[in-house]
Fold this sequence. Notes:
Elements: H1 3-15, H2 27-69, E1 72-74, E2 81-82, E3 90-94, E4 99-107, E5 115-122, E6 127-134, E7 142-144, E8 147-149, E9 159-160, H3 171-182, E10 185-190, E11 196-198, E12 200-201, E13 207-211, E14 216-226, E15 229-239, E16 247-254, E17 259-264, E18 267-272, E19 284-290
Antiparallel strand pairs: 1-2, 1-7, 3-4, 4-5, 5-6, 6-19, 7-8, 9-16, 10-11, 10-17, 12-14, 13-14, 14-15, 15-16, 17-18
Helix pairs in contact: 1-2
Amino acid sequence: MDRACWLIVTLAILATGLVRADEPGSPAVAVSAVTTSALKAREQKEGEQKEATQAPGTERLAEMKRKADAIRVFGADGTTELKMVAEPVLRFSDPAREFSDATIWALGERGSPVALMSMERYQSQNKWWCELVALSPDKFPVGTPGWKWSPSKPSLELQRFAEAPAAAETAAGRLQRMKALARRFSVSEDGGMDDHYELRLMPQPIHRYADEEQGLVDGALFVFAYGTNPEAVAAVECHREGDSPASWQFGFVPLSSSTLQADLDGRQVWKCAARSRVRQQEPYTVFSMSLDP
């Protein structure tokens, strides 16, 4: 019986006028005592259920952090280690595609990330499947003992917006500009046969960054997703060279081996062909790690 039903029973007994609410041993007092006891038991049970539900998610996140921390990222000189953003920039799941938990990590703390890494948990395969996609034009080695990824070119190729508003002076104003620019894109995914999807733009960027020393005034990464599963990422950036007015630029990277296409105001501006075989040193690659015992 829920809280509302107990209150109705108590009020009904008091309404009869046959007993006083404060009379020892009266039905009203008995009902009140039972109500309090039942509510406490229910709240305790709900708390235990909530903890049980949260525990696996907390443990999986800790496991993903351990896996991510084991991956080393170095700068173009091959010796300077770059720090990964401490927390995942996105956490998601896709039960329809048989993975129950996943994250995206930004590799490189300062300025635009040199790469993005997704990590997806497949319990049936006892594996984490990971994707790496290069954003930086510089060569940078990434790896673990016995495995190394050093793409020769980036997946991200920036283009100028032909028509775009002037850059705002404040960070909040620039964020509104970037959101408006991202909404001008439509992105689709083609998995072959009849598997064609119009991807959904997530309303908030998953990562924000800047590096004014390099002329990068502001930037944000926007996800285009199938449900909640990211399939493509758009970088929208504000650049300034010297005393020239700031300009808006954009580029896309895949988080899928399927064919992806992006249109800006109805005109195609990016297409990434499907890959039946992903090679290790390509700008987009995949690898796997076993689940923790």
